[in-house]
Amino acid sequence: MQYHDLVIIGGGPAGLAAAVAARQAGVQDILVIERDERLGGILNQCIHNGFGLHTFHEELTGPEYAARYEQQVRELGIPCLLRTIVADISPKREILYVNAQEGAVTLQAGAVILAMGCRERPRGALGLPGYRPAGIFTAGTAQRLMNMEGQLVGRRVVILGSGDIGLIMARRMTLEGAQVQVVAELMPYSGGLNRNIVQCLQDYGIPLKLSHTVTAIHGKHRVTGVTLSAVGPDRRPIPGTEETYECDTLLLSCGLLPENELSKAAGISLDRVTGGPVVNDRLETDCPGVFACGNVLHVHDLVDYVSEEAARAGRNAAAFLSGAGAAAAPIPLAAQQGVRYTVPQCIDPARMDDSVTVRFRVADVYRDRCLTVYYDDTPVKRQKKRAMAPGEMEQVVITKQSLLEHGPVSRITLCVEDPA
Amino acid sequence: MTTHELICIQCPLGCALTVTVDGDRVEVSGNTCPRGAEYGRKEVTAPTRTVTSTVAVTGGVLARLPVKTRTDVPKQSVFAVMQAVRAARVTAPVTIGQTIIENVAGTGVDLIATRSIEAQ
């Protein structure tokens, strides 16, 4: 059986950053496996700017950001298999991949980094009533068709969901001459960044209807219209509030789901909230030697954080390959009271780096609250937060020193509290 | 005197800004930091945007070339820039950073390629 020290599944922003960091940490034998015909992943279709402010201190477009990492991968001579899909991973890190040149190949990996990214929540998962005419796209599909294949997917558009891709597509389609009539959002707040609400909707006078959803899709062969209704606090439609928009296209921007079919096949435990693997502070899953990073681990807002996280996964995989032992007695992290999840889900105080960045999302829009970290029942860190929202990932740093000074800890808790 | 209501986009706080313009005098209120004041002033007096789009490619491995204005351009020229972008066509190969249209729509800013595309 073929053997490679490190196999990285996915050649998007996470996979590329992980490969670069692993090589810089001394791993010579790396293989990146990518199913598309080019590296860069979703960044290839994200032609708008706003990427890289943290990583490169300048504002790049998606393809420019991807090109910087591709160039590093090329300069380091890291081999990448394109047009190759991984079909299975075993708990012993045997990887089955398939492509047109070699057929089906099984190889043994010393360590694996999962970097498969995420998928959009499709119509079928939203429970939208109505026929299934042509003209209903997820926002990312429309983005690919427009930006890479040059197809205008519609002329009169309604968008359901105010995630960032939907907002970006509202502007993109407007600039290409389509009429975007409205963006409807089920929740009473937008899931997208403020910057996108201002520059993608307000700039073009596109209304954002919060607490609204689609209650009918009209048209048999092609979409002819969409009915929106207001929803109550229980998120159910309120009868009598229906409003019908004539349109030929409905775009869906209703959330992203980490793509973990392969992780499941390997028997890796997944977190019910993130949809991604449960990991320790090394970003290692409960399958030894298998690490995860990027949107397959949890959905990020900013690619800069993906790159940073993936580089950590790359360095930790390198440490695993050079014989770093298994976690001894990790302390679980508990997400409570306004904190929906944490990544990582546990920290091993004996083996951790000097500091570990814990990323999380909050459950609601909060103003003037505190984010508190408890070691068991002792509050050890209180951060004042002027504003927090589910659409913006938050982070807190846990230091090794603070854990060691505190003595034995059986649980670390993160929660949102009223300021004392 | 005119009054403008804006949401500041400098940070996640999203302060509700009120900008009043009275002749040469511009006053920003509702901001909680100096960046907000600067943003409010610029948005009302000289707003700018970076335009990103795609240009048709002949003979390349991809059908569309992503492009951007090298720097931000006045907000009111966004649609003029788009018109020039739609009329443009390039032949592969293209190198990232290459100028596609000089001084696009008279903005004084070049339109440049944001990826490389090899010839087919």
Could you explain how this protein is built, in words?
- The complex is a heterodimer of chains A (about 425) and B (about 120).
- Chain A has about 425 residues and is an alpha/beta fold.
- Helices cover about 20% and strands about 35% of the residues of chain A.
- Chain A is built from eight helices and 27 strands.
- The mean pLDDT of chain A is about 95.
- Chain B has about 120 residues and is α+β, with helices and mostly antiparallel strands.
- Chain B contains two helices and ten strands.
- In chain B, a hairpin with a 2-residue loop joins strand 2 (about 15-20) and strand 3.
- Chain B is elongated.
- In chain B, about 35% of the residues are buried.
- The chains are: A alpha/beta (about 425), B alpha+beta (about 120).
- At the A-B interface, strand 4, helix 2, helix 5 and strand 25 of A face strand 5, strand 6 and helix 2 of B.
Helix and strand layout, with pairings?
The complex is a heterodimer of chains A (420) and B (120).
Chain A: E1 2-9, H1 13-24, E2 30-33, E3 49-51, E4 60-61, H2 62-75, E5 80-81, E6 85-89, E7 94-99, E8 103-114, E9 118-120, E10 136-138, H3 139-147, E11 156-160, H4 164-175, E12 179-185, H5 194-201, E13 208-210, E14 212-218, E15 225-230, E16 243-246, E17 249-252, E18 256-258, H6 261-265, E19 290-292, H7 303-321, E20 331-335, E21 339-343, E22 346-347, E23 355-362, E24 366-375, E25 378-388, E26 394-399, H8 400-406, E27 412-417
Parallel strand pairs in A: 1-2, 1-8, 2-5, 8-19, 10-17, 11-12, 11-17, 12-13, 20-27
Antiparallel strand pairs in A: 3-4, 6-7, 7-8, 9-18, 14-15, 15-16, 20-22, 21-23, 23-26, 24-25, 24-27
Helix pairs in contact in A: 1-2, 1-7, 3-4, 4-5
Chain B: E1 2-7, E2 16-22, E3 25-29, H1 34-45, E4 48-49, E5 52-58, E6 64-69, E7 73-74, H2 78-87, E8 89-91, E9 99-101, E10 111-113
Parallel strand pairs in B: 5-8
Antiparallel strand pairs in B: 1-2, 2-3, 4-7, 5-6, 6-10, 9-10
